[in-house]
UniProtKB/TrEMBL annotation:
InterPro entries: Marvel (IPR008253), Synaptophysin/porin (IPR001285). Belongs to the synaptophysin/synaptobrevin family. It comes from Python bivittatus (Burmese python). Keywords: Glycoprotein, Membrane, Transmembrane, Transmembrane helix. It is found in: Membrane. It is a multi-pass membrane protein. This is Synaptophysin-like protein 1. Residues 209-227 have a biased composition (Low complexity). Pfam families: MARVEL (PF01284).
Amino acid sequence: NSNGGFLQRVCVFSIFAFATCGGYSGKTSINLTCRTGKNLTLNGDFSYPFRLNGVALGPLDPGLNCNNTWPSAVYLVGDFSSSAQFFVAFAVLVFLYTIAALILYLGYMHLYRGTGKLPMIDFIITVIISFLWLVSTSAWAKALVDIKASTGSNIVTEIKDCVSQPGFCHFNEIRSMGSLNVSVVVGFLNLILWAGNAWFVYKETHLHNPSSSASPNATSSSSPSGM
């Protein structure tokens, strides 16, 4: 069954979507050039759901705080948990739905074909899922751009102690966000798959071929004329 094969594919892609986003753990770091000539490295470890404003740059020994030129706690900027959690939660729900729908397609296709309501419900759900893939992936893609900006090379411009002391802070490195990029690509791929499948589901409904549902009435009405 073509719908069964489709569900198997999107089930895998849904797993990729929430696994690549929800399983990510990253790190960014900056170097401090102290007046004594000693360099210190501060790290910021962040992960899903990307509440960066709760991630402190450190640790920094109070006795090595560059002659009191660095505050005790400096945090990254931004909270992107809403977009990330929406994307992951939706991907998980789609995964669960595809498992249930796959059971219906493979084990109870006679019920699916034998009623006019199930194909229509399936079509409506498919359209809704396609739309929500667009919304959730777009929101997550925008959040990812902001995450990269908040943890990348311009991080030193967002820390007032770095801005007030030119040459004091230097961006060091950031862990690759390749898996997060993959999550966005997979999200849009899911959108394309679900939107494309909407046409095939639509052909199963009475909206595509209403004449087939009306033909029994036409036959019954024409029979008396042959009498």
